[in-house]
Design brief:
Elements lengths: L2 E5 L3 H11 L4 E5 L2 H10 L4 E5 L7 H11 L5 E5 L5 H9 L3 E4 L4 H18 L5 E2 L4 H4 L9 H13 L6 E4 L6 H10 L8 E5 L5 H9 L16 H4 L4 E5 L6 H13 L1 E3 L6 E3 L3 E6 L3 H6 L5 H7 L2 E4 L10 H15 L7 E2 L1 H9 L5 H15 L4 E2 L6 H4 L9 E3 L6 E2 L4 H14 L5 H20 L4 H8 L3 H10 L2 E3 L10
Parallel strand pairs: 1-2, 1-3, 3-4, 4-5, 7-12, 7-13, 8-9, 9-12, 14-15, 16-18
Antiparallel strand pairs: 6-14, 10-11, 16-17
Helix pairs in contact: 1-5, 2-3, 11-13, 14-16, 18-19, 19-20, 20-21
Length: about 500
């Protein structure tokens, strides 16, 4: 059974903790900082409950000594000032969590269970390390070994030194600007200027001025001459992102630059020349926009000298572990988390099965947030947003468990439904058939065990060989509804 150390000078708190937490841990108590630290050095504990206000030493100072002894031990602060700056400071120092006094049995049990689970997971070797690799220290622009990404690398190698316009296509967040920068880096213009303009971020009149510049008095507010990006970038490379959001009037002027390398500033009559290589990017269906009359067909043909298709992340999930490592190292350094070791195997499994609608940008944001919030050396699945931890049940089936009667309902049993699910996914050309089938089986097994135990989560977790915290997470993920209120034994 896990070992828990409780340090508090209030004997009623110590007694309450012993009685409340006895079913889930062996509880050792101490009534002072000195006694608690002595117990800590002589024992092997999985978590610590620590009072912030102790008679012989401030709880924050005690926490620092606990960290020096073993930084893997999760520390939960107890305080009567839950909204105070002291509690905030405790979390900033890296505490696992804090709980307000007076203590309540069920919230305390849940919090301690989660802390113990984190401790156990932190003792498992990480599946992906947060240590910097040689490749990362060399500043590689791209991460990926999947066939789809190798095809992108080949295309970049073939056209980077060719002085032709290039159109990069792909969903939002796939890394189109990285492709543009790689094309620039490996081109003959790599010593010249590289500028990027997001065509969707500026109103039409401002975009025209941004690209071509303007003369003094060209429009209200034009108090002086402005040099546009085509002039600034003479001899270099100009990246036009979201080219599909460009207004028709601006499309015509960009077309002329592509054809003749000539343009005029807004409000000017002097013709200027430039030598700019254009790389454009879009996630819009330009051909359909041409058919609808929203985009110039001749401009599409000029931009489309060479097209590089960037695959969405869901089509190259084998690259996710390498991307995780890359972003993990970046975030560890940025947020100054020297104790961070990496991600647990369960956390990696979640990330490699998720379909990533926001692509690489979303993955980077998730890793950064998980690192920012991490208080333990190993990041677990609980550090991720609910949409990642929530696995949708196949075919929208709903399972319910009546906690009193043990009645578990499911539209189909797996012996009949699983072959149908596999057949449907094959017809849909799914790229995640294995994970969806395994999710269905896991959902069925958990529902059946809960039915067998009449909804008793503790018994179900023991039968399944998982913690209550993980079982609760799966119940929420798979929409298993416990119809009656969960009965919690009161503290005698």
């Amino acid at each position: 059974m896990p070992n828990l150390l409780v340090i508090d000078d209030d004997r009623t708190i110590l007694t309450f903790a012993e009685r409340c937490l006895a079913p889930i841990a062996d509880v050792t108590t101490a009534s002072s900082a000195e006694a608690g630290l002595k117990q800590l050095r002589n024992g092997d504990f999985d978590a610590v409950l620590l009072d912030i206000q102790l008679p012989d030493q401030n709880g924050l100072a005690v926490y620092c000594e606990i960290r020096e002894h073993d930084r893997r031990i999760p520390v939960i602060f107890m305080t009567i000032e839950a909204a105070s700056g002291t509690a905030i400071e405790a979390m900033q120092l890296g505490a696992f969590d804090y709980i307000a006094k007076p203590l309540s049995a069920e919230p305390l049990r849940d919090l301690v269970e989660r802390a113990i689970e984190q401790r156990q997971i932190s003792s498992v070797p990480v599946a992906i390390s947060a240590d910097e690799s040689d490749e990362q220290s060399n500043g590689e622009l791209f991460i990926g070994r999947s066939p789809a990404m190798l095809s992108v690398f080949k295309s970049i190698g073939k056209v980077s030194k060719q002085n032709v316009p290039i159109l990069v296509r792909g969903e939002s967040g796939t890394g189109k600007e990285l492709v543009a920068r790689a094309l620039y880096q490996y081109s003959h213009r790599s010593d010249e200027t590289f500028l990027a303009v997001n065509c969707a971020a500026l109103p039409d009149n401002l975009l025209e001025s941004e690209l071509f510049g303007h003369e003094k008095g060209a429009f209200t507010g034009a108090e002086s001459r402005r040099i546009g990006k085509f002039e600034q970038c003479n001899g270099g490379t100009l990246f036009l992102d979201e080219i599909g959001d460009m207004a028709p009037s601006v499309q015509a002027k960009v077309l002329r630059v592509l054809q003749e390398q000539r343009f005029e500033r807004v409000g000017g009559n002097k013709e200027l020349t430039t030598d700019v290589r254009i790389i454009a990017a879009t996630n819009r269906p330009l051909e359909q926009m041409v058919d609808d009359g929203d985009y110039r067909e001749d401009l599409l043909y000029r931009l489309n000298g060479v097209t590089i298709e960037l695959p969405p992340l869901r089509e190259r999930l084998s690259d996710v572990p390498a991307l995780i490592h890359f972003f993990l190292v970046q975030a560890k350094q940025e947020f100054n988390k020297p104790d961070l070791e990496g991600l647990s195997p369960e956390a990696v499994d979640l990330l490699t099965q998720y379909q990533w609608p926001g692509n690489v940008r979303q993955l980077r944001a998730v890793i950064r947030r998980a690192v920012l919030d991490a208080v333990m050396p190993v990041i677990t699945a609980e550090g991720f947003p609910s949409e990642i931890r929530r696995v949708a049940s196949p075919e929208g089936q709903s399972t319910t468990t009546d906690q009193n009667s043990g009645d578990t309902g499911s539209t189909q049993q797996p012996g009949r439904a699983l072959p149908d699910l596999v057949t449907r996914l094959l017809k849909e050309k799914s790229t995640s058939l294995y994970s969806e089938a395994m999710e269905y089986m896991e959902r069925f097994v958990i529902a059946e065990v809960l039915r067998h135990t009449d909804g008793n989560q503790s018994q179900a977790a023991e039968i399944l060989g998982i913690t209550r915290g993980k079982l609760r997470d799966r119940i929420n993920s798979y929409n298993i509804t416990l119809k009656a209120d969960v009965q919690v034994d009161s503290v005698d």
